[in-house]
Each structure stands twice: as structure tokens, then as C-alpha cells.
TrEMBL record, chains A, B:
NCBIfam families in the cross-refs: PRK06270.1 (NF004912), PRK06349.1 (NF004976)
Active site: K223 (proton donor)
GO biological process: methionine biosynthetic process; threonine biosynthetic process
Pfam families: Homoserine_dh (PF00742), NAD_binding_3 (PF03447)
Residues that hold L-homoserine according to the record: E208
Residue ranges of domain Aspartate/homoserine dehydrogenase NAD-binding in the record: 7-146
Example of a GO MF term: NADP binding
Pathway given in the UniProt record: Amino-acid biosynthesis; L-threonine biosynthesis; L-threonine from L-aspartate: step 3/5; Amino-acid biosynthesis; L-methionine biosynthesis via de novo pathway; L-homoserine from L-aspartate: step 3/3
Entry keywords, A to Z: Amino-acid biosynthesis, Methionine biosynthesis, NADP, Oxidoreductase, Threonine biosynthesis
Family according to the record: Belongs to the homoserine dehydrogenase family.
Protein name: Homoserine dehydrogenase
């Protein structure tokens, strides 16, 4: 299976690393997963026989641009690579933009038009125009998968749609942002105030330099929009979410909650067509009370009743794990079809 | 898709109920799921146009035997129904026998030989001769799925093999028996001794009249054998498991564990090729510390790191949920193939 990686930041490099390390395992259990092109905002590297992924990571880390890949590097843009390079799947992993969804939206639509399946971790286009993307994919007869867009390595979208197939998902509640969970856990355990806990999270690289989207709840809001649309068949955008962040939470509030058998978590919730993100009281012995940077989601379903899943919501290798599972699904589906031809 | 239900006890009736209630939903989203035969130890009912599932449940509940189904009922045996009735899938849900695996083993093998896919919840044959079953299925080109055999509605086997595809599963630890978890939770919360908690569990129908397999850890042992073989590719049987039950646990032991920040759970564990079932100390804030009849499993993986899943381990509708997801997977796979033909 031939793959194009569009975007070569931390996650792109994580995917390259995993595909390199798992090459023999994949060959033995599935087939050959070959990266025939990698692009970033500066240009690209293309080799239809498969790029050397370790060399690609090295070039990116030492020169800052994949276009410097020896002999096979060029200034060719992502969109042209998507159009012109022969491949089965495009992995779209440029940075998420929650206002415009670009450049990911254009990349994804262009991939569909060129009969390429798409795997993405990109929240932007999914939170802004999910329906349009799904319809375009259908129109062109290609697959569109995005397990990595919510909860990183924590199984959630494919879990609900495939492992729990046949169940109606009645509600979803969860902690979908590791940064805010880390901050609240620190405040609770050490009595720190919000600013101090945030500062520490920044120093550890858990919070970004500009943590607004996380602490104001926008990141969680984008994620529950994706879950509402992809799992529950709703047609929501980020504007439909009532959002409140964690900046007003005090260590005193956490202390008082604890005294009554509760903790406070930033919960994203989809229930009866309403999407809410806000700090909520959670019983201390609830499975939703997970600590540190962990993510958690609780599904309420008609047959299986409550199902809870806990996992790592971020990190390049963890995100690559979800992308890899989507790539394997696409490979297996294509292969099931080809066996019959 | 034509289905034969072999076994019509609580789980069989649960499957029939779910297939009846979900009929329109399945038709709309997938296709027609028709039960063309139901068998129990007394006989069978056969209708190639699809049985009336509500009538089948009523007949079974009022007369005790499916052979009394009006006009379509007969003394025809399960094995002959498997051989002679035209169908795509056999759902094997006779009672589990952990010593011989029968009659499920014979039913499953005969289904394979007759080119019928199999979905089962039956632990017996899986814990005793997994490899033989998988090889027979492969030989005859049919699918063999058994999500319901471990953890009821809790996603576990398909989660590890499909949702986490590409990950190496390094270890599995979990609470895979709801009865023992209920007893230990009661003892911990109310200071009851083992016998009193067991008595209460029996009165509530949570423990069986003969609870030996649960409280001695054999049920958990069978389940970790299934997980070791199906998820981790090992070749274990129930004889390879070091097993210790919960009958010696006292409320004092739980009290002391609590005082030090721990609880005691009956844990099934697969790690470095060793299978163990025994009461273990679990930190109070560990995701493994789930209460009541809940089941939980923690996977340690190479890419996604730790993933935890919590769900309902038993109950006819919950088990039917897992069976339904397997049926949908088979339907989708057959259908992907047929689209190309």
C-alpha cells in the first residue's frame, strides 16, 4: 500500500518512525506499507519505491525542511503531490486550524477527488464541515478515517462504530483534553492555584506556549463535535457547543468537592442533542475520575449499557498508533476486495 | 443474512430479542438479519423465510422446548440443523463446558465444514482447543468470531485485534468475572465476610447456585486463556494457568489493604508468557479499581501504551450486544466481497 504523508511535524515524524519500526511486522501480518511521498509547508520528497523514513526524519530535524531530502526532495507543494503522486492513501497531519480548517480541508477534498483514501488526525475540517467531507468521500468511493482526531491513542470513534456496532449510542461524556486534566489533577493533589499549575504544565511541555484552546475548552468542544457527528449521526459545528473553560477553578473548589466525595473535571458531554463543555463534579469512585494527562470516555448505549475507555490522549507515537490502526483497516478492506477480483 | 441460533437459554433468547427489536435498524444500516433456525437440546424450529422471534421466545418460555414452535417445530437435532439448513452464520450459545468443550466444539467444527461462519459466546471450546478451531475455520474459508466469550458487552477481543491493530499487546490484566467483583466490593464496603456476601449474591441472582467456577477463579482462568491465544498469539490451555480463588479473602484483609491505599481484586493476568489468576492488591486510584459486577481490562501496548476498558461482563442483552457486533462484522465483510462480484 502506497502512502503520502502530508504534514511532517511531531505527529508526521511519529507516523514515519512507527511505519519504519513496524515494517517487518506489517509485512508479515498484512503487507508492504510504503511511504512514497512526504510533504511539509516548504516542499516535499518523493520516491515511488518508498522513502527512507529514518533519513527523512533526520533531514527534517537538521535542516527544518523535507525538501532537502537528498536527490528526491523538491519544492513541489502538498496539493500537487496529492494530485500527481500515485498512492492509495493520504495521511493528513498538518496543524489543526479550528477557524478555517485549512489547509487540511483542501488537502482532504483533493485526495478524495484523486481517488485516494484519507486518514487524518486533523480536528479542524472535521469540526467545521464533517458532512461535506463524508459525502465527498462517498461520492468518490474512498474511505475516510480519523480515529486519531479525538483522544489520541484512546480507542473511541472506531470503538463506538465498529466494536460496539449495533448499539445505539445514547450519550457520551468524557475528559478529552490531557492538558486540562493534568492541571486539575495537580491543583487537586498539591493545592496549587490555576496559574501555578499551568506554568508547571508549560515547563513540562504538557501545555503549549499558547494554551488558550485547551484551558478555554475549545479543543474539547471540537472533539465532541467530531464525536457527535461521526458516532451519533448529528450535524453539529463548533458553534453549537456551550463552552466553559477551567480558568476560574480554584484549589478551594477542588478541596470542597473532595470533602463531599467528588472531584472537578473538564467534561465534554453529548446528550439529547445538546453539546456541552464545562467543569463538572464527578464522583471520586467514578470511572471518569482518571488522573494526570489521561483521557477517558463513557458511552451510554442501549444494549451494552455503559462502556468506559481510558487511554493516552496525546503524544506523537500514541497518535501514530491510531493512524496506523486506520491504515491497517484500509489495507484489510482493499485486500478483501482484491482477493475476489 | 441467514442465521441459525444453536442454544436457546437466557443468552439465546437475548440474541433473539435483540435481533427482533433491531430488525428495522439493521435493515436500514446493514441488511436483513433473518433467523432461519433455532435449536435447543430438545429439538428445533426451522423456517427459511425467518422465524417469528417473539413467538419463539414465548414457546420456549411456556413449554420449555423450541420444538413446540407451531408447524415449524420438530425433533431435529442441532447437529443436523447445522448440516442441513441453508444459512450464512451459526451462533453457538449452548452452555459452556470447561472440561470437554462439548457440545459446542462439535457444533462449531461442523459449522465450519458446512461453510458456515461462526459467532460464539462459548468459553469451553475456546479455552480447550483454540488453535484447532482457528485452523479449521481458515481451512474452510469462514470467519470465526467470539467477542462475547470474554467480558460480555465489554469490548476486548475485537478492540485489541482491530481497534488497536498494529499495536503489540505486551500484557493484559483485568477483572473478568462480575460475581467475584460483586462479592469483594460488598465485603469491602459493608465489612461482610465471604460467606455472607456470597449468599447475598446468590439471592440477587448474581452468583449461580453452584458458584465454584467463579469463586475458585476457573471462569477467569478460561477467559485469560482465550485472551492469551486470540489476542497475543500464544498457545495456552486452561492447564497452563496458575489459579487461586477468593474464598480465603477476609473483610480484615480488605480493611488493611484500604488503610494503605489499596483494594483487593481477583485479577487475571497475562505477562511474559505466564498466565495467573489470583487476588491481587490494586491501588485505590487505579483504573482497575471498578466496583460491583463491572469488568475491566488493562492492555499494555507498545504504541498506544496503556489502554483500559470497563463494561458489563454478563447479562443476556449485554452478551447479545457483543454477538450482534460480530454478526455485523461478518455481514459487512461478506458484503464488501459481494459488491465486487
Amino acid at each position: 500500500m502506497k502512502i503520502i504523508l502530508v504534514g511532517f511535524g511531531a505527529i508526521g515524524k511519529g507516523v514515519a518512525k512507527v511505519l519504519h519500526e513496524k515494517r517487518d511486522y506489517l509485512k508479515k501480518n498484512y503487507g508492504d506499507f510504503k511511504v512514497v511521498a512526504i510533504t511539509d509547508s516548504s516542499g516535499s520528497a518523493i520516491d515511488e519505491n518508498g522513502l527512507d523514513l529514518i533519513k527523512a526524519i533526520e533531514v527534517k530535524e537538521t535542516t527544518g525542511s523535507i525538501k532537502n531530502y537528498p536527490e528526491k526532495g523538491s519544492k513541489m507543494k502538498s496539493i500537487d503531490v496529492i494530485r500527481e503522486v500515485k498512492a492509495d492513501v493520504v495521511v493528513e497531519i498538518t496543524p489543526s486550524n479550528l477557524e478555517t480548517g485549512e489547509p487540511a480541508k483542501t488537502h482532504i477534498l483533493e485526495s478524495f477527488r484523486n481517488k485516494k483514501h484519507v486518514v487524518t488526525a486533523n480536528k479542524g475540517p472535521l469540526a467545521l464541515c464533517y458532512k461535506e467531507l463524508v459525502e465527498e468521500a462517498k461520492k468518490h468511493g474512498v474511505m475516510f478515517r480519523h480515529e486519531a482526531s479525538v483522544g489520541g491513542a484512546m480507542p473511541i470513534i472506531n470503538l463506538a462504530k465498529e466494536t460496539l456496532a449495533g448499539n445505539e449510542i445514547l450519550s457520551i461524556r468524557g475528559i478529552l483534553n490531557g492538558t486540562t486534566n493534568y492541571i486539575l489533577t495537580k491543583m487537586e493533589k498539591e493545592g496549587l492555584d490555576f496559574e501555578t499549575a499551568l506554568k508547571e504544565a508549560k515547563e513540562l511541555g504538557i501545555a503549549e506556549t499558547d494554551p488558550t484552546q485547551d484551558i478555554e475548552g475549545l479543543d474539547t468542544a471540537a472533539k465532541i463535535v467530531i464525536l457527535a457527528n461521526s458516532i451519533m449521526g448529528l450535524e453539529k459545528t463548533i458553534k453549537d457547543v456551550k463552552v466553559k473553560g477551567i480558568t476560574k477553578i480554584t484549589p478551594e473548589a477542588l478541596f470542597l468537592a473532595n470533602k463531599r466525595g467528588y472531584t472537578i473535571k473538564l467534561i465534554g458531554q453529548i446528550k439529547e442533542n445538546h453539546l456541552i463543555v464545562e467543569p463538572m463534579l464527578v464522583p471520586i469512585d467514578s470511572p471518569l475520575n482518571v488522573k494526570g494527562t489521561l483521557n477517558v470516555a463513557m458511552f451510554e448505549t442501549d444494549l451494552a449499557r455503559e462502556v468506559v475507555v481510558v487511554g493516552r490522549g496525546a503524544g506523537p507515537i500514541e497518535t501514530a498508533s491510531a493512524i496506523l490502526s486506520d491504515l491497517i483497516h484500509i489495507y484489510t478492506t482493499i485486500n478483501t476486495k482484491q482477493k475476489i477480483k
